[in-house]
């Protein structure tokens, strides 16, 4: 599986993420993920190891209620959401 920072989000998705950030008091990074065939995935994984991590932010520590809201938004938006310290 390959995940990268979500780009070109529809306005309603972006507004939903911003509203979630404001409600929770957290910074949220949205990722778009997709499956690759195994051979291609292995090549991408090797490249990623060579270049190192792209997102260099400390993870936030949301509580259970905040995590529940984030998971709910993930399901609705079809994205992976990560709370980070800004």
Account of the 3D structure:
The chain contains 3 helices and 3 strands. It has 86 residues and is of the alpha+beta class. The protein has one domain. The protein has helices spanning 11-24, 38-51, 64-77; strands spanning 2-5, 27-34, 80-84. It has a 3-stranded antiparallel beta sheet with strand order 1-2-3. Helix content is 49%, strand content 20%.
Features:
86 residues; alpha+beta; 3-stranded antiparallel beta sheet; 3 helices; globular
Topology:
Elements: E1 2-5, H1 11-24, E2 27-34, H2 38-51, H3 64-77, E3 80-84
Antiparallel strand pairs: 1-2, 2-3
Helix pairs in contact: 1-3
| Rounded Rg | 14 Å
Strand order of the largest sheet: 1-2-3
Low-confidence stretches: none
Kindly give the count of domains: 1
Number of helices: 3
Q: What is the helix/strand order?
A: EHEHHE
| Structural class category | alpha+beta
- Terminal CA distance: 26 Å
Shape: globular
- The number of strands is 3
Sheet having the most strands: 3 strands, antiparallel
- What is the share of helical residues? 40-55%
State which percent range the strand residues make up. 15-25%
Kindly state the mean pLDDT as a whole number?
88
Task: Give a nutshell description of this structure.
By secondary structure, the chain is an alpha+beta fold. It has 3 helices and 3 strands; from the N terminus they run βαβααβ.
